[in-house]
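Hello again,

I reread your note about wanting to compare the complex against the isolated chains. To keep things tidy I'm splitting this into two emails, and this first one only covers the full assembly. Below are the input lines as submitted, including protein chains and any nucleic acid or small-molecule components. They are followed by the predicted structure of everything together. The single-chain runs will come separately.
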Amino acid sequence: MSEREIMEYDVVIVGCGPAGLAAAIRLRQTAAESGQEISVCLLEKGAEPGAHSLAGAVLEPRALDELLPQWREDETCPIKTAVTTDRFCFLTEKKSYRLPTPPSMHNEGNYIVSLGRTVRWLAEQAEGIGVDIFPGFAAAEVLYNEQGAVVGVATGDMGIAKDGTQTGNYQQGVELRAKYTIFSEGCRGSLSAEVMKKFNLRTDDAPQTYGIGIKELWETEHANPGEVLHTIGWPLRNDTYGGSFLYHLEAGKIALGFVVGLDYKNPYLSPYMEFQRFKHHPAIAPLLAGGRRICYGARALNEGGWQGIPQLAFPGGVLTGCAAGFLNVAKIKGVHTAMKSGMSAAEHIAAALKAGNEAATLNDYEKDLRTSWVGDELRKVRNIRPMFRHGLWAGLSHAAIDTYLLRGKAPWTFGHHNDHSQLKKASECQAIEYPKPDGELSFSRLENLAYSGVNHEANQPAHLKLRDNSVAVNVNLQDYAGPEARYCPAGVYEFVKEENSDQHALVINAQNCVHCKTCDIKDPTQNIHWTTPEGGGGPNYDSM
Amino acid sequence: MKILVTVKRVIDPYIKVRVRADQSAVETDGVKMAMNPFCENALEEALRWREAGIANEVVVLSVGNDSCVETLRTALAIGADRAIHVKAANTPQPLATAKIITAVAKREDPGVIWMGKQGIDGDYNQTGQMTAALLGWGQGLFLSSAKFADGVVTGESEVDSGIRVIQVKTPCVLTADLRLNEARYATLPNIMKAKKKPFETLTPEELSVDASDRLTTLIVNTPPPRAGGVRVADVAELVSKLREEAKVIA
Amino acid sequence: MSALIIVEHDNQTVRENIRAVVTCARQVADSVTALVIGDNCRAVADATAAIAGIDKVKLVQHAALAHGISENCAPIIAAESAGMTHVLMAAGAQAREWLPRAAALADMQMITDVIAVNAPDTFVRPLYAGNALATVQSSDSVKFMSIRPTAFAPIEGAGSASVEEISGGADSGQTTFIEARTSSSDHPELTTAKIVVSGGRGVGSAENFQLLETLANKLSAAVGASRAAVDAGYVPNDYQVGQTGKIVAPDLYIAIGISGAIQHIAGMKDSKCIVAINKDPDAPIFEIADYGLVADLFEALPQLQAALE
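Full-complex prediction:
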């Protein structure tokens, strides 16, 4: 193999989401204020900034106010729909009961946004002050120096055929070398996972926990801009954590989605089908009637909160945003905390660069962030999610006591468990019959998938790798009834019966993958390894 | 020889297009855009000709609003030497676009204009032919193979009955089909280098071209969904349906 | 209102699609003149004159017009368009060579792929590969339009128009026709074939694909495959139909053992008639198929083969 080309920057940022962009902007701002020259580049595996961004989303503008205080005056800023009303409901199959909205879910002063569009706008701001953004290039490899410190990343090779040979279009990856590398890959980032392991950033007793969020964007006549609705209860059983969100945007659009905690136990559960069923609830269906779904997507999210946050700094790099796990589950928001973590990382990196420190471990970043408002708000709600493991009612009553009586100051902290180990064997569970999608309110998975704009170069090795091929059938299918065929929101995993035998085989339709990372999280034996495909592949969300 | 390559910005081919709720047009706001795939093939061929010593300069041209700048930057990153953006409020219709390309060609005097066979947005399939007509040049359309020798291009295109082979004298307009080649990627170092390549911005007025529309779009609809099909009971029924109802087999 | 319709032919016979063009021309004009451009093609003009709905046939013969070279033919169309309100031609390979070039010479904005006439100046045409339909109004004095012959019912019956031979034709010297080759493979080219027989993972093996090849031979069809079948190694890469493979829109697409992954559907959904044969009654392909047959392909294919004998 020939020597790879090298490009040098002061700071390389992996992932063009809210955390990475906030870090990039803050770095350039700090550099300008202090007269430093700090070169910054940002890599994004999606074909353009925002193409892989997916969130509800209600944005708390606290971090944005700190980063770009003039944003409200900017005509081009897509953050326009202030939240007007807030409802929280418990659903039964036919009825909807309004519950008091928990204080953490109050949304005064917050905005309903498309995260994708917000990210695109932030990217324009970043490019405007000299950040080099490279969409369509996936960081595939972490670079280390002889001392073991991180010194950048390399992009993946392009033009490798399915069989591993080089196509006529082969292009070797490029090394992006940096004094500091910021990992802002989002939830369950593949390189973040590597550095966490290498630097032992996460101890075994504090695993991260996750949920999967599946979302659709609808165009409907019944949108009432500014309205926010969250539901719990039906169609999920009380032993499964999850619920819906429904946000009314401007221009006749409603963003709605469904989150299911990935600690669910029944391998027959299909988060996708739960969401489809949910839309038929009498409180929901009328909002969508006569409308059309215009976008579909899914993404895993962190639910581990305070307890799930790993050590953030290591030689030459830091973790930020959802790559670390700053989502506030009680608020159902993580953009503000992600941005704040990026900004804080940027400030500490700028200071280190000014002092001439390269590839150091920026422990102060972690210390500061944990004592900032980000740490405050996460610590306060730290015990809410873990109690839902004991069921919806235990979780809700505990949440009420914790919130209203203890105000988050309980002297204890509940621990977490690994999501993948929660799955029960199929023999211990009941199969679930889901109603067939009607094609108007509910859709088959593949039909919906067409609205994610997903595509990958077909002639490349599958980016979803099995550590042991035999496990798929011998364990996953036999013991767990093939859960990946259900939890994957993109129909990547298919068990097919082989011709003329009773044998099954797992087929991986990697081209369908929307990069949600659920398989990497939920696979019961952790046999599925999500790696980055050729840059530019994946979904192309237009405003998710 | 200089090659002029036209590149158009269109909705990414992998995006499911949707008509705006007010039925005025297909929605492009917030939708991922990309270089028209056939234009990628045209650019690739021009670059290969430069690499083979047939051409010494590849100039890319795009006509349309400010967002075309991004498409031209991409073309420069892929390997074009120089870019020209003719700025128009919206993408002009094919005749006006052909007039603009003609005006640019008269200034630039290329030996060949390489274009995509059609835009995947409007599906007009006219601009290349019209440009050739206005310049009075020969045309080689839908090429799946193109060889240059001694001022003559031998081109192959797929037609209903097989392959049609023609020879066109330069200067000429050539339009590319997907099978002409496999377009290359832009590399990171080349994206950085592209930022320093020459970039010229013009307007139709500066070129003395009337770019006004001759066609007015009254309404854009979503076509009715494929009518729900029928299940047939057996092969005999299938064959009779295909013969009698669909009339697709003899 | 007077329309000029351009006749597609091989210097010997008239393509049947001219009857659809006449139907469309009659919707926009009350007089229809047909123009035959070619070499040694008197028979074509006479045959055209015998088609209903045509008032007059003009014939131009010249050696330089034998192979439809646009640089030589388009100027004749442009000249003959003078005084007309419409110039129509069936959309296809010949129309794409001639009509835009002629329209530009006449300084007119052509309208491609018309599928409906709302008024003499207002037409419906597809955009984005048929994913949207635009209704457009033309302000040009002569409307150059290619029409989709499948969208207009062919005019029936005979006529007796006069044939007028006009002089014209010259070799621009710019472009030379070299040859027309039939495709080297046994089957027609996948992207241009009228019928495509396509197999998926359900076909089961490379050997079983032979069943499809045999059926394709019978139908003079091209053979395609889904990505799953290509991945499974049943057929080479260049068989792949789908978004990242080839995009096809034949008159008839027969999907055998194909479940219907979105990428595959994206590559063939514009086919005029889709037949799906699959054992699995819930296969998504049935949702877009015009005719669905739930059957084992090892039983269905031999039967189909026999029924076509």
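For quick reference: Chain B has a mean pLDDT of 94.

B.
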